[in-house]
Amino acid sequence: MAQSTIHPDQIYIDGLANNDSAIIQSIYKKFVPKVVHYIRNNSGDEDRAQDVVQEIMILLFNQAKAKKLQLTCPFDAYFFLLCKRKWLNEIKKSSNKGVTIDGDLPSINESTEQMVTETEVFDEKQQLFDLMFQKLGDKCQELLKLSFTIKSMEEVAEKLNVTYGYVRKKKSLCVGQLTQWIQETNRFQSLKIT
Predict the structure, then answer these.
(1) DSSP states of the chain as a string?
(2) pTM (two decimals)
């Protein structure tokens, strides 16, 4: 498949990654009203719509920070489809009743669909990692959090007031345990396929 070109709306993703308040306000002003309108017309209310928007904004921020999300479609279609799917999944979870869905949607192209799928898989992986990370002991969590933010293991050892050798060994054991727990889950097996 040919390399897709970056869409000019990449400014929204970059703005989120940089926590640019002007870009974030622009997103809320331009794109959120359509999402709120959609959710209100499909069994939701203003508060639940704002919750969905907030979750998607956090997801986009995390994905942009983690791996430089490259937008290849209009932000409007991408953002709307993410919010719509999130809302439909919430409805599905909370009710076994049939749901009436307003079909008034923008046309969704293949690029948008692919980006949304990638973002949803990223979110699933992040949730799985967070869940398994919480199972680790306090010492492992502290060590790994420091090693995520401080690049030098010497500095991590100094901060924890332990030896460099201990930090390397302990980090290896903690990462090994975390990896094992993640790989043993059914969710990991289904994410591996995608």
Answers:
(1) -PPPPPPTTHHHHHHHHTT-HHHHHHHHHHTHHHHHHHHHTTT--HHHHHHHHHHHHHHHHHHHHHH-----S-HHHHHHHHHHHHHHHHHHHH--S------------HHHHHHHHHHHHHHHHHHHHHHHHHHS-HHHHHHHHHHHH-S-HHHHHHHHTS-HHHHHHHHHHHHHHHHHHHHHSHHHHHHHH-
(2) 0.58
